[in-house]
Amino acid sequence: MTINRRNFIIASAGSAALFAASAPVCAASKKVSWDRTTDVLIFGAGQAGLCAAIAARESKAEVILFEKGAFCGGHTGMSGSGYYIGGTEIQKKAGIDDSVEINWKDSVDRGVKTYRFIKRDTAVVRRVYDEGVAGMAWLEKHGVKFMPKPVQGIGNRRRVHYVAPGYKKGSPVLIDTLLKEAQKLGAKVETEMQLASLITETGEPTLGVRVVGAKVKAADGKTINVRARKGVILATGGFANSPQLVKRFHPYLAGLPSLGSKLNTGDGIVAATDIGANMIIETNGFGMNMLFVGTHKGQSMGLPMTEAPLIVVSKAGERFEDESKGYLAACHKMTEKGIKLADWIFDEKTYQKFREGCLKPMFETEVVNKYDSIDALAKGEGIDAQKLKKTIERYNSDVAKGKDSVLGRSKLLQTIDKPPFYAFECGPKIYTSYSGIEINREAQVMDTRGKPVAGLYAAGDVTGHLAYQCNLGGGGISGISMATVYGRIAGTNAAKNKSV
Ligand SMILES: Cc1cc2nc3c(=O)[nH]c(=O)nc-3n(C[C@H](O)[C@H](O)[C@H](O)COP(=O)(O)OP(=O)(O)OC[C@H]3O[C@@H](n4cnc5c(N)ncnc54)[C@H](O)[C@@H]3O)c2cc1C
């Protein structure tokens, strides 16, 4: 990789032409007849939107939160529920020596190692590291409970804090808790209400004009105009389910299936860029997040690769990526090489050691096949048997020498030789988009001149992955921590605005 490679592109995506299918900008607000009015108008009832609603209510603003779906949750409700941050009380109690600075340095180091040179202002993402621990405590204050033992994700410490009762099971609880809390505090949350477009003070997509409300499409197909005296907050998630936007921003991922919510079609991005908001397109990292998804029950799976000594092979019987780099690197290598399906393979030693740990969810939620021999495994999984045997022989001999001669893996090396053998078949699917609307440290949406759009805020996946955008290593913070910190900031700041 060359050092002068351009690490990111900041696109001026403020024209409706970019999104030919998007809705036209609304008529001038002076002529708008308002159907409803509130102080703070929020779109999207996932982590970011619900946190924004709670924060705005804490600041005593009147809040309406509209959700496009028939129920709340979005990707947050489907997620593993892992809140990734370093320096928490829970880590301390679990004997993990970590801090915000260690977490930050780990991300910077990973960014440098992967040639993601930090050219962009890191201030926006740094706020998530600085306020991520307080964000967790704030969630706890509002009723969210976390598991007592953080687990390993990407990075040099165990920093993934699952919401109780644990991996995936915690995500519906997280949404339910935040939704009830927002409603208890007085936010009006309404489903099947969809952001159609934003309404500016002049009705024109002119830069520098305040956002004063939005057009909202209801389930009955009628569109109403809703006025926001203090501000509009976009928390509508990413665009994993918009083939048009995936192709536009990350063409090499075009056509890949998505495992995410069908409703996350980039509506907030389209509405904001239509009125001049800037879009940051993440190009040097992965563009979009991907997970391994099992082919039998369709469950997403990520963690075991960084914790357990398993190998991942193609149907041609070949390893293709250093497995210890994690699921994301493996999924992207598959996309790059056109490998559609892969098998995770491990032996009885690994099973016994990790069956109650990181492998547990695989056995609970997916189909893992068990075989007496590598020949039987190859036949059962449709893998080239000769090549697979050679791959495993070479791998075992490399482990004995302490050096992976094929892919240079240095972590989690262990032979695969004790039957029975296990195989888990899966393939990559995209979900979170790393590109998104640009915000500043106050969660204000930025326009294409680098100025905040008055009255407009954004948080969560609609803003993309803030760490990747400034070329840090990913995994140093997570979607849920970003959505919490900036959802809270957006809610608080919008509520503080003077009414218009
Ligand atoms: C399978 C899976 C596992 C994951 N695991 C983790 C994990 O363990 N840890 C982690 O940190 N992150 C994880 N993530 C990522 C994480 O879930 C997201 O980054 C985070 O939930 C984003 O929150 P959000 O509020 O921005 O978006 P969402 O939770 O997606 O919420 C957006 C909401 O906006 C609604 N919406 C969309 N368009 C409109 C519109 N026009 N009008 C009104 N509403 C609209 C959607 O229906 C949705 O409810 C995972 C994601 C997936 C899919």
Note down, in words, how this protein is organized.
With 500 residues, the chain is α+β, with helices and mostly antiparallel strands. The chain has two domains: 8-283 and 434-496, FAD/NAD(P)-binding domain (3-Layer(bba) Sandwich), CATH 3.50.50; 289-430, Succinate dehydrogenase/fumarate reductase flavoprotein, catalytic domain (Flavocytochrome C3, Chain A, domain 1), CATH 3.90.700. 32% of the residues lie in helices and 22% in strands. It contains 16 helices and 20 strands. It has helices at 47-58, 74-78, 89-93, 100-113, 123-141, 170-184, 243-249, 267-274, 304-307, 327-337, 348-354, 360-365, 374-381, 385-401, 466-469, 479-496; strands spanning 8-11, 36-43, 63-66, 82-84, 151-152, 158-162, 188-190, 193-200, 211-218, 223-234, 279-282, 288-294, 300-301, 311-314, 342-347, 369-371, 421-433, 436-437, 444-446, 452-458. The strands form four sheets. Strands 2, 3, 7, 8, 9, 10, 19 and 20 form an eight-stranded mixed β-sheet that branches. Strands 12, 13, 14, 15, 16 and 17 form a six-stranded antiparallel β-sheet that branches. The longest helix has 19 residues, at 123-141. The chain is elongated and about 75 Å long. Residues 1-29 have low confidence and may be disordered. Bound molecules: flavin-adenine dinucleotide.
Quick synopsis:
With 500 residues, the chain is of the alpha+beta class. It has helices at residues 47-58, 74-78, 89-93, 100-113, 123-141, 170-184, 243-249, 267-274, 304-307, 327-337, 348-354, 360-365, 374-381, 385-401, 466-469, 479-496; strands at residues 8-11, 36-43, 63-66, 82-84, 151-152, 158-162, 188-190, 193-200, 211-218, 223-234, 279-282, 288-294, 300-301, 311-314, 342-347, 369-371, 421-433, 436-437, 444-446, 452-458. The longest helix is centred in the first third of the chain and has 19 residues, at 123-141.
